[in-house]
Amino acid sequence: MDLGKLDLAALKRYKRHYRVRTKHNSTKAELVQAITRHFASQPVMDMDSISFFIYAVKNQGTWAAAAGLLGCVRALTLPGAASLSGAVVHSEAAKA
Known about the structure:
This protein is mostly helical.
């Protein structure tokens, strides 16, 4: 992913949101380098990502999908939460 294509304001928002440490008056090139390093260090759970994608596509445009996706995002961000795959299966079981 080429983060250099993002404008300076987007890079600064990413830096602030994820608390990426850089010097105070970083250039765009320095921000891109620091953010690229941070982005690359984030773990990706393949099965959870695939389950999330399939669920989103299957339920595209429905209110239940929006509510389900919110629960999935929370499951991804809460430490010790069940895996996203479990959240999707649980959501599907609740619909039946």
